[in-house]
Amino acid sequence: MILHRCVIVSILCKFRLHLKGFVIMCSAIKPSIQSICFSHAVFLSLQDCTFFTRKEILRLHGRYHELAPHLVPMDYTNEPDCKIPLALIVNMPELKENPFRNRIVESFSEDGMGNLSFNEFVDMFSVLSEMAPRELKAIYAFKIYDFNVDNYLCKEDLEKTLNKLTKEELTPEEVELVCEKTIEEADLDGDHKLSFADFENMISRAPDFLSTFHIRI
Amino acid sequence: GKKPASDDDDDDEDDEEEDEAPRGRRGANRKKLAKKRGGNDDEDESEDEPPKRKRGGAANKKKGGKAQDSDEEDSDVGKGKKGKKGGGKKGKKEEEEEETKGKKGDGKGKGKGKGKDDDKDKKKKKKKGDSSSDSNSNSSEEEESMSEGEMARLMEEVEEKKKLIANIRNKPWRMQRRLKLLKEAQEFVDKFEGALGKGKGRKWYAYKVMMTKVLMGLPYGSIPRKTVPRAEQDTAQDYSVLMDFNVSLASNLRPPAQTLPQACCTQPQGEHPLRGYCKYSVLFYGYYNDQRTVGVLKFRLPLSYLMVGIGTFGYSLMLVIRTMAKNADVGGGDGEDSDFTFAWKMFTSWDYLIGNAETADNKYASITTSFKESIVDEQENQKDENIHLRRFLRVLANFLITCSLGGSGYLIYFVVKRSQEFATRDDLSWYEKNEMEIVMSLLGLVCPPLFETIAELEDYHPRIALKWQLGRIFALFLGNLYTFLFALFDEVNTKLEEEQSIKNASIWAMKEYYANYSRLMNDSEATPPPMDPADVIRGPCWETAVGIEFVKLTVSDIQVSYLTILIGDFARAVIVRFLNYCWCWDLEAGFPSYGEFDISGNVLGLVFNQGMIWMGAFYAPGLVGINVLRLLSSMYYQCWAVMATNVPHERVFKASKSNNFYMGLLLLVLFLSLLPVVYTIMTLPPSFDCGPFSGKDKMFDIIMETIDLDLPAFMGTLFSYAANPGLIIPAVLLMVLAIYYLNSVSEAYQNSNMELKKKMKMARDEEKNRRNNADTTNQVMKDLEDLLPNRSLIPPAPPEPEKPPEQEPKPKPTKTKPGTAGKGVNLQKDVALASSNPNARGPVSRPPGPRGPGPGPGAGPGRGRGRGPPPR
């Protein structure tokens, strides 16, 4: 019953997105998941720690289970310790087309390799949800664009970002120029790489950041 | 000496440490006592109490909080002595310590007056340390019995925890840590809330109150328009306005079945256009009657009709303004156009919502184009070109566009006039009946592409060109709408005359009837004439007529937009797709291609549509419902069309950064649609026999009536005073002055903003020079570090090599504009200026973010930077 409703809701949500294709819509209608057991406490704490409602958490668990039915047990009452590898998560329709999909998953995994437990999985979509505040999103965006995980966006990171964004269609000179300009614009302290303070200062004024850094599930 | 504290401070601190030591030892044994004293110190702090003592108390309290000692502070050289001597327990986070220490110094500097605040701060800090340290079990607190101060402190702590629980989802922590902390906090709250006797509190259940049905009494007084007149009953067979287009005009002027008042023959019934049942439905103004109160609850229908009509405008106005203000706030969109072009493009241009391969490909393409564009913009200096030709072309383009605007206006006027002519005739073809709507829709269809073609002449930057284009289309729509309105008002005036004659005639007939009645029956008692409501002759009810025009306009608008999509996009896409197999050139890449989805045009259409609804809703309340249906259906329909047949715009340019461009248009439309409605409410007399205001001279008389009849008498006098021009004019004057004042204030703010920006830039340049690269004590940085994967596996990062302090920024690459060379020179000058006056740049040397308390004026920007990496 719940699942049924979930599917309807998700279809409606997806219809609302003009940019989302029907491919996703079809994939949202998957064979049913009978019953997912959670203890009440888990629900409450998850609700407190994320921006999701009970229903959405259930739906998320459905999706999580779907990714690796053999790995993830249905019964979550005693919080089993299981993780789904990056390769499986990245294939979710929500992430499949994202040029930064690997980085997204890696930044949310505790081991940095992209293996996500359910909690981290929920965390990921909570941060990317509509309700998350700008500051929180900024922090995770910074982490996502920080390819070499040194807490600074250096030129190397920017080049990678740019090449992913444009599918490497810019010439090296153009890439160089764009990265130079980006650093020049956003770097407040003159160390030729962007620290989080620089990044936040820049992103907090970006008009599109909230609307683009956002995944609906 | 890590923090730049004055000698004075150091001395004080030493004293404090000395003092702290014995107290601390004592406190170790009799913690409770010390704590109590600490709490009391907080409560009854007096002026002459030495600050040390207070501080000692605070430190002791701290001990209580941090039950578990750790060796960490030993590594901290500056604190080691203090930590060992006092035996005080330090928080795990060094940062907290630092801040607390800083606080102490601060507090001393500021004097005793601030002491209390300081203390509170400290408490908070401590608690934060509490809540964010992982292994903190509050064992020490559990054993204690409660004293007054203890209670207060605990309460505060509980509050703190509660706040943490509420905000934990906003913290950038790992989920595992979050869950753990949450659990701890919840346990803490549960335990101590019970102890404090607060309990869970009674829960109040909200009951849903069912609205009692308002029984609509039978219409009394004027006959509502719900009843279809007998004369129209057999011809009014269609069910919606939509069908109106196909109604054959076979109206034989039947005399009413009961020709009681002879006067009715004088009624110019032939002028009535046939509108079908819809005309008498809830869709239109005429449906409602002027019954003052309805049902047991005395629902005041006419009053609420007026209030809803005006309230809608007020609410929309408020909403639009609020949204605009919010957008302006968020966007901060003043002159920062070129500040972050590339950075924003780099970090916010990918839309994470994209989940479709084709869309993603398009997005990649459009991002690439936009980057290339900005690169070209960047490289391109102002070209020399023939400015005279450019000017001539622009003037020409504007001339052409003005011509076409005027032409379209005239065309509409002409058509409306003609339709009034047609209204008197019976033998109309389908085209002639719907000429006006068709012409208006066609104009809306043809003109925008025409404008776009003409705009090619002007050769503006795409963003400016888009603004012009939108402005022109807007002018076209608005001009058309207003021409249509003026023509409509002409019609309304003729209707009013006609109505006057009908009114006179029926009054005369009634008098006649009553005269006959009383003469025949010899009875002065007035009985209403035995007549079916459907047979009564009625006036034209101009309000309904206006409503009908708006509904027709909306419906035809729907039809046109749907047909456009079906033919212009879908058919084209099908042809391009399938004829491509057998065609001489590439249809997909070549000439016809697929239709582009024009975002700005669609938004403008929505804005315009909204304006029409605002205007028409007073006369046709059902229009709102129609529009909701239309918007819903068109959302899905257009969604399908976009997915199936359209390609994204080749160059997507937003008309404005802060979305306020469209909101501004919406506001303008709202204002312009407000005008005619308010005009009619204020000046035109309502129809005498239809609508909620029938029988009144003016629509707003209903308010007067309510004041007179329903409110106590003094309210009436109050309102009459309030409506006095002598009061209103000063009020308006005051408001104007207030606007003036606020305006100048905002200007002043803007100036100071600019000043601050300048200062920030200066500080930034200066910082570039004396940058040493140690990490900051920023909380956020800590969190970020915390989020690094597998901290335990990675060896502790070696301290970053310090950069030479006077490192100049690298020479700019050759591709930058020549102007930057001058900037470099400037920069050095700025630095020289800046460093000569350290006080001025102190406050702006760091963003006012979460970096902890600002240093005193003498502290300077170096504080907190020279320290080594946090021990991890």
UniProtKB/TrEMBL annotation, chain B:
Any single Gene Ontology cellular-component annotation: plasma membrane
Q: Where is the composition biased (Acidic residues)?
A: 7-20
Q: Which InterPro entries match?
A: TMC, TMC_dom
GO function term, MF aspect, one: mechanosensitive monoatomic ion channel activity
From start to end residue, where is composition biased (Basic and acidic residues)?
Answer: 100-121, 762-773, 800-811
* Keyword flag Transmembrane helix: yes
- Biased-composition ranges for Pro residues? 845-858
Where does it localize? Membrane
Could you tell me what this protein is called? Transmembrane channel-like protein
Q: From which source organism is this entry?
A: Haplochromis burtoni (Burton's mouthbrooder)
